[in-house]
Design a protein that fits this description.
The protein has about 230 residues and is α+β, with helices and mostly antiparallel strands. About 25% of the residues lie in helices and about 50% in strands. The two termini are about 35 Å apart. The N terminus is likely disordered.
């Protein structure tokens, strides 16, 4: 009996280990991912690389940290990027503790305010739904992340989510999630978010953004995730 019980436990453990972290229904994927990013004690995305062509010629590299203690004596939110934005050299940084938020361009502090009440939601949901480039563009204009005062979930809406193909990116098996974006009630683009089949976390985003006078094609790559107490 003990051998049978042990075998049953091993089989159950094996099933748990191979269970996909991705919901079966495509419509549930982004809500589940957003719940993880908002519910984790801290989130580290140590490296991203963004390129854009069309309406904006951009090439940026950087990192995103949400309420992380690794670099500071108290939890900090930090978004940093350098490279070129619309053809010009760019180096932007957002730093926010519990109380204050500071925005910098190059070596200059361009804004210092109280920390907006919905900063983490604006960064996390802005990332999952629109990608990082939108809020980085705002930093280049000395503006805080969009809807950092609240309301990001109602402002940008994802619809038409559907599973796409499976492929390998940088040696990792990924599953594509395709969806459309609606911003302030206007159809704004189409994206495919490539999710790591083992962790459920984003590896890459391919997106086409539509403007009244043209389009922009954006590719964002993400590496080195860490979620504290996920």
């Amino acid at each position: 009996m003990r051998a049978v019980a042990l075998l049953s436990l091993l089989l159950l453990s094996g099933c748990a280990a191979t269970r996909s972290p991705l919901p079966a229904d495509a419509a549930d994927v982004l809500p589940a991912l957003e719940a993880r990013l908002l519910g984790a004690e801290s989130v580290s995305l140590s490296f991203f690389h963004i390129t854009a062509t069309g309406m904006s010629e951009t090439d940026l590299k950087g990192g995103l940290w949400l309420d992380v203690e690794d670099f500071y004596p108290a939890p900090q939110t930090h978004l940093f990027a350098l490279g070129t934005f619309e053809g010009d050299e760019a180096r932007v940084r957002l730093r926010a503790g519990n109380d204050a938020m500071r925005l910098s361009r190059g070596d200059s502090l361009v804004a210092e305010t109280e920390r907006p009440p919905a900063l983490r939601e604006a960064l996390a949901l802005g990332f999952t739904r629109m990608g990082l480039l939108h809020n980085l563009a705002r930093l280049t204009a000395a503006q805080p992340p969009d809807r950092a005062e609240g309301g990001v979930a109602q402002w940008v809406i994802v619809h038409g989510a559907a599973w796409g193909t499976r492929r390998t990116i940088d040696g990792r098996a990924v599953q594509g999630l395709r969806f459309d974006l609606r911003v302030s009630g206007t159809e704004a683009g189409t994206a495919t978010l490539w999710l790591d089949a083992a962790t459920g976390l984003p590896v890459r985003r391919d997106q086409v953004v539509r403007f009244p006078d043209g389009t922009m094609t954006v590719t964002e790559s993400y590496r080195s995730w860490s979620l504290g107490r996920d």
